């Protein structure tokens, strides 16, 4: 078995153990394989091992991979999530190629994605990114701003508001990880009362997936634990 296949198996069992330890069903948690900077051969191995949902951070790189795999036998079964910071001038490529965008954090981006989503594609699945704890980061809105943006997104016909996403500041203490994720869980439950179609809480990465799952995450975004460390020196 290849390393990627083995890693995927290990990650799936970590997810299952984390879910079971808080009385959740493992199937409630989708595994998004974060493949940024990784070559198509690495993704092909993951696909071979049954992985179908992939997350990409860089628009151009993501579109190239989507186009590569759309010509492959498994292409139609793959689901592509854009999870990187999104600039206005790149929104069209996201609208035209991806199934999901996790990083909507302002009205202007939402409006552009809505306007640019092609009519022959299903509405783009959108998550609103919350800046829950990272003062260094300029991405994401505060919880105070959520109600207004959620209302606007939910009214856009070419977008479907599916929920919330967060990238907390790095934190090694599991108890502190859970506190931060707990605030996201509260916000998500409130959102669902107004928008029943919001079924996705995207949180948890390689180092904090268990804490995220215990706080109700329905989608973990895992890169390193599947594909190994990333090498940015070529970029
Ligand atoms: C890179 C990245 C991940 C994956 O992080 P790992 O620690 O490698 O699992 C998840 N989410 C986002 C938004 C990322 O940019």
Automatic annotation (TrEMBL):
Kindly list the GO molecular function terms attached to this UniProt entry: pyridoxal phosphate binding
Q: Name one Pfam family in it.
A: Ala_racemase_N
Record-linked SUPFAM superfamilies: PLP-binding barrel (SSF51419)
Start and end residues of each Alanine racemase N-terminal domain: 7-230
- Where in this protein does the record say N6-(pyridoxal phosphate)lysine is found? 36
Among HAMAP family, the record links this protein to: PLP_homeostasis
| Assembly with partners or alone | Monomer.
PROSITE patterns referenced in this protein's UniProt entry, alphabetically: UPF0001 (PS01211)
Q: Please state what the protein is called.
A: Pyridoxal phosphate homeostasis protein
Similarity annotation: Belongs to the pyridoxal phosphate-binding protein YggS/PROSC family.
Instruction: Tell me if Methyltransferase is a UniProt keyword of this record.
Output: no
- The organism encoding this protein is Serratia rubidaea (Serratia marinorubra)
Q: For this UniProt record, give its keywords in alphabetical order, as a comma-separated list.
A: Pyridoxal phosphate
Q: Which cofactor is essential here?
A: pyridoxal 5'-phosphate
Q: What function does this protein fulfil?
A: Pyridoxal 5'-phosphate (PLP)-binding protein, which is involved in PLP homeostasis.
InterPro entries documented for this protein: Ala_racemase_N (IPR001608), PLP-binding_barrel (IPR029066), PyrdxlP_homeostasis (IPR011078)
Give the lineage. Answer: Bacteria, Pseudomonadati, Pseudomonadota, Gammaproteobacteria, Enterobacterales
